[in-house]
């Protein structure tokens, strides 16, 4: 079959697909078109064609625009650009409607449930104008310039004009030169302090690079340390297409393993310790570790988890994939000192930060461990409620089977990917639980990402 790459197709766009595109058809093939809106007639340039039933394209000319179209608010993410703001060309209400349609389709296709949750804005700046992101991870090119990756590419775009970060978060970063191949983590905490941490270049597969193997270029005021941060859940390829070929999959696994290897850190600005507040409690966390990107998300999710979980005084509760224990703290406040709360997290740094913040709750045990192993060892106990906030790939069958075997009365499940969220829900339904409540939040405005929360009950 002749490749369609660089061919321009005139297509009418159909519904949104999971991954920030609209679905179109041309000469019997499916075309995933970015930068368009449902119902639009566009000229789409094919950007990727590996044969088979589908190809990918960018809408480069809008022939019949949707009434929901607005001038693009992100200059970095248009055709040929970065993958940051998929829906920057749509009104905020249209963005949320698109996400609602995607969630509904994933639920219908995977679980059989007919639900279309309204995607809700999070209080505070929550529209396509930006100003909501407090955590930013940048990459550094061979010339030492900070930037972002081009969509579905390792190429670095040294353009920091994306409107997502809170005001002043990226001030001065474009003017500096950084270590080629490094990553930069920028965090603005709840006290308004900016922290910039430079992570040494990740070792290539097979290469060892531990603490002390690089000489710092930073000034005397900068601090260096070795750490293994929990990576922020970030935008990635959509989950609606078949797996990549074996060779590409092996290379992707190798790159992820290298990226998560312990890397030297240099604290370039601030202390490297971000102060965060949720429900009146103070956390002092690593600026390079995981925290919700939207500045209102942690508080919003914490309030809803507490409302849905509602363990009785003296009850036992679990918080799995607990991070620094934001949800565990709310559960412990509800169970009181007569109760027992277990929180499990695989990142040692997050556990250390959480234990420091939660030292006044001795009935809460926050420990380092792999969730799948921990729940398998504790499935004969009977918690009243379990909260799970797994990574983008979801919890999966081993974890959910062990959780449902423990027979909690209520399960609160959180997911940032509609497809993996729906797959996990299907496992709960198969185990005899019913969906008691469902909410979805626009935690990543102007992008295709959406956070979903479900209450499962017996």
Textual characterization of the structure:
The chain has 458 residues and is an alpha+beta fold. The chain is built from 8 helices and 23 strands. It has helices at 92-111, 246-259, 297-309, 326-335, 348-357, 371-378, 396-405, 418-430, and strands at 8-12, 16-17, 21-26, 29-34, 41-48, 54-64, 119-121, 135-140, 146-149, 156-157, 183-188, 194-199, 223-227, 263-269, 273-278, 281-286, 316-320, 340-345, 364-368, 385-388, 410-415, 434-442, 451-457. The strands form 4 sheets. The protein has an 8-stranded mixed beta sheet, with helices on both faces. A hairpin with an 8-residue loop joins strand 22 (434-442) and strand 23 (451-457). Helix 6 (371-378) runs parallel beside helix 7 (396-405) and helix 7 runs parallel beside helix 8. It is globular, with a radius of gyration of 22 Å. Mean pLDDT is 89; it is low at 208-259.
Write the layout of secondary structure elements.
Blueprint: E1 8-12, E2 16-17, E3 21-26, E4 29-34, E5 41-48, E6 54-64, H1 92-111, E7 119-121, E8 135-140, E9 146-149, E10 156-157, E11 183-188, E12 194-199, E13 223-227, H2 246-259, E14 263-269, E15 273-278, E16 281-286, H3 297-309, E17 316-320, H4 326-335, E18 340-345, H5 348-357, E19 364-368, H6 371-378, E20 385-388, H7 396-405, E21 410-415, H8 418-430, E22 434-442, E23 451-457
Parallel strand pairs: 4-6, 7-22, 17-18, 17-20, 18-19, 20-21
Antiparallel strand pairs: 1-5, 2-3, 3-4, 5-6, 8-9, 8-11, 9-10, 11-12, 12-14, 13-14, 15-16, 21-23, 22-23
Helix pairs in contact: 1-8, 3-4, 6-7, 7-8
